[in-house]
Amino acid sequence: MSAAHPAVRMARLIRVPGPASRAMWAGLAFIVAVLALSFLLPVLTGQGTDEFVAEPLLPPSPEHPFGTDQFGRDLLVRTMAAARVDYLIGAVVIVWCGGVGSLAGVLMATVRRAGADWVFSRIIDASIAFPLTILVITVGVILGPDFTVLGLPRGLPSVLLVYALIGWAYYARLARSQALSLRSRDFVQAARTMGYSDVRITMRHLFPQVSMVTLAYAVGDAIVAIALTSSLAFLGAGVAPPTPEWGQIMYEGRDLISTSWWIVAFPAMMLALSGISLAAIANGVIKRIEG
Amino acid sequence: MLPAVKRPLRALRDVGVVVLLVVTFTTLLMQFAQGSPGRAILGPRASQDQVDALNHTLGADRPVIEQIGSSLAGYVRLDLGHSLSNPEQSVAGLAAGALPVTASIIGLTLAISLVGGVLAGLAGALSRPSVDRAVSAAAVSILSIPPFALALLLIVGVAIGLGLAPAGGWAGSWPANLSYAWLPSLALSGLLLPQIARTVQQRARELAGEEFIEAGEARGLSRSRLTFRHILPNVLLPVITIVGFNASFLIAGAVVVEAVFGVPGFGQVLSTAVSERDYPVIQGLALLTAVTVVLINFLCEVLYVVADPRTRVAS
Question: Is 0.95 exceeded by the ipTM?
Answer without folding.
Answer: no
